[in-house]
Amino acid sequence: MAGAAEEIRVGERVVRVSSPDKPYFPERGLTKLDVVRYFLAVGDGILRALRDRPTMLERWPRGVFEGAKIATRQDNRGDAFYQKRLPAGAPDWVRTAHITFPSGRTADEVAPSELAVVIWAANLGTLRFHPWPVSAADVERPDQLRIDLDPMPGVEFAQVVPVAHEVRAFLDELGLTGYPKTTGGRGLHIYLSIEPRWSFGDCRRAVLALGREMQRRLPDLVTTTWWREQRDRPVFVDYNQMSRDHTMASAYSIRPTPRALVSAPLAWAELDDARPEDFDVVSMPARFAERGDPHAGLDEGRHSLEPLLELADREGLEAPPER
DNA sequence: GATATGC
DNA sequence: GCATATCAACGCCGG
DNA sequence: CCGGCG
After folding, report:
1. Are residues A170 and A311 in the same domain?
2. Same domain, yes or no, for A33 and A120?
3. From the Cβ of A81, is strand C under 7 Å away?
4. Are residues A170 and A305 in the same domain?
5. Which of A21, A43, A137, A228 could make an S-S bridge to A115, C-beta 3.0–4.6 Å?
């Protein structure tokens, strides 16, 4: 019978997938079950990106179709929505982390401990996962520094690449190792494992210091100006991404656009020839099977933030008020 | 997508 | 049993 | 109150 729910074994768990034939990316002919199979195929990778991190779900339970939009604060209606708090009816093996928002309000957010949690979330229509840069073990001290190279409208991925190389060179000078990934759009994210010893404020200040250094080195390419109107350079280093409650879509997350592009972890050697549009729900499983996860080493060496904080101090950087 | 309700 | 409604994000700032 | 900011 078409449309019957399926039960999929994931490790020790059995996860129900309802409406497996439902079109999720109609232009690509991809169904909800195809999405589930994608996440299974990149399982080790996406679990590495999410494990034990408080994670916001971006749910598209009606699929991605022409004109579909996500609900916002002022417009409740929407075909999709973000979900910070644990969905009602979750199995008891879905773990959470208790996180605190800037206002002081709190929430119990999903913190995936095993791949079955990812698949359970996929059944709820989750395409993108937005993990905090912290572990459930210490939700106040980031263990990951995230650098967001955000191209302005009309700027191509290729223009971000030289900035990424300069970031890598600078990190290398400081003895730090970053790991790049495409966003699935035109941007690039660079992640760095750090010891969980510093506050969100210090981490944000560290990324601001790095951004300002890039601005000095590549004045024609880089801006760190928050206000769009004043961003007169092609690449914005978004240091506010290290603010509390700010998250980036994880590696292997699926963009809610017709082509089903995904955020693709890269080796540095791949960067010059990489094309974000080559990585999607269909192509990524083979790539992952062949070469594994380029971010496999991300957590192996945790770095000190001191070099960047010393730079921030030398520059007299105060983190501007967060907005 | 899941749940609660009302018929 | 089926149809219908409801819910599922964070917050601050400036005009 | 609404729009801008991610």
Report:
1. yes
2. yes
3. yes
4. yes
5. A43
